[in-house]
Design goal:
It is built from two helices and five strands, in the order ββαβββα. It is of the alpha+beta class. A hairpin with a 2-residue loop joins β3 and β4. The radius of gyration is 18 Å and the shape is elongated.
Length: 125
């Protein structure tokens, strides 16, 4: 049984971000859901055009599996899969990995975006 926990639409600087948290064979506490949502809110600090974030949490035989699917406009999606024995550890590890991936993508956009040939000035001799 798949239970759709919550669908939120965040509007950040006029840009909507769709956030969905799905839980399968596990019940999320309010504090756990709030922790995931606050982490997703912190993803916006990288100034990437995040269009949607889908979080899939499911109970496995030996613990919990979490998948973050982060869709970014004009870029490849960031997909993080994490398995652990405890729900809290799996959430924290997947949030760390997603943050690291988004930070690297942001750094790539910022450092490589300024090196265009069109941006170079011509020198008149």
């Amino acid at each position: 049984m798949i239970k759709l926990e919550r669908v939120n639409y965040y509007s950040i600087k006029g840009f909507k971000m769709n956030v969905q948290i799905h839980a399968k064979d596990i019940t999320l506490q309010g504090s756990t859901r709030a922790h995931i949502e606050s982490a997703i809110d912190s993803f916006t600090k990288y100034s990437l055009d995040i269009t949607s974030v889908n979080v899939h949490i499911k109970a496995e035989k030996k613990g919990v599996s979490i998948d973050f699917d982060i869709r970014i406009a004009h870029a490849q999606p960031v997909i993080i899969s994490q398995e652990d024995d405890s729900l809290e550890a799996a959430i924290d590890l997947s949030i760390e990995r997603a943050t690291k991936a988004l930070r690297r993508l942001h750094d790539k956009v910022v450092t490589h975006g300024n090196d265009s040939i069109k941006d170079l000035e011509t020198l008149d001799s």
